[in-house]
Design a protein that fits this description.
Blueprint: H1 22-30, H2 32-51, H3 58-83, H4 91-108, H5 113-136, H6 142-161, H7 173-180, E1 182-183, E2 186-187, H8 188-206, H9 208-218, H10 220-225, H11 230-256, H12 268-278, H13 290-309, H14 315-336
Antiparallel strand pairs: 1-2
Helix pairs in contact: 2-13, 3-8, 3-11, 3-12, 3-13, 4-5, 4-6, 4-11, 5-6, 5-11, 7-11, 8-9, 12-13, 12-14
Amino acid sequence: MTVTATPDPIIEGTPAEEPPPRRAGLLARVGGQNLSLIGALIVVLALFGFLNENYLSLTNLQVIAEAATITGLLAVVQTVVIIAGGLDISVGSQVGVASVVSAMVFTSTGSNALIGMVAAIGVGILVGVLNGLVIVYGRVNPTIATLAGLAAYKGLAQLLSDGRAQGYVLNDDFFVFLGRGKIAGVPVMVWILVLVAVAVHVLLTYTDIGRNLYAIGGNDTAARLAGIRINKYLIAVYALIGVVAAIAGILLTARTGSGQPTSGSEGLELKAITAAALGGCALKGGRGGIGGTLLAVALLGCLENGLTVEGINSFWQNVAQGALLVVAVVIQQRRSGERAVGLPA
């Protein structure tokens, strides 16, 4: 039996008996949250474009897109798990493990890129399923379980690599193609993000699986009574995170030329969660969409690049990310009408 829940699609449209005014129709189709993100993105682009004439150049825009790809992949699957009422703080560490495994297996098998990638994805599945089993059958809160995973998988990546970058993959044509190639003038990494995002959007919006995930996040008790096998869904979701984190790890290896235990993967969990929250995901579950998440990823990427181009201390980027996450959650709480903690209704 399937519980029907209404997801937040990339383009929202609500049929009405009388056509709404043109402006209201645009707001209904795109969504207020997405329009706000588009407005903020335009402001950021205009500001840094005014400060630096090279900021809006095609070359720099490609740099922004490539740099945002790994964050985008993790934000997309973070959106899925948040919709289902969970959270995964360990995604950055999972990327580090996959990056190291892909490079080390590649080197140890005589430069076989396919085996290195398959090994990384296999490890990603194992790690994701392990997270799901701990949460479901260990009855551990997802935040605590994946916080433990954040430390454990980071330690595992460092143990495997002895804390150093491993292997060298830029002598392999396929790794070079993944990290630096282009199709129709667009970096291959960006095409991979687009394919993953479209696949996940279709899953969430047009399938029973997606509707059931929204139902689980919206009201898990009702979903269970409706016959949805919540445990299997949650384990599958965390396995999906492991697969996509492994893909991100492979792209990190291809981009940097070697397996990175921490460099390039540390802090990705904060970026992914911030992007999902800014994109409209309710951290309590049951609401969110891929379109808003991708807009938030673009906003964060443009902001980070702009601060770097202007020579602003990189520590301020962390401050900005933390502030944006707080702002996103505050807006969610205000919209939900929930009473402030410790204050009368």
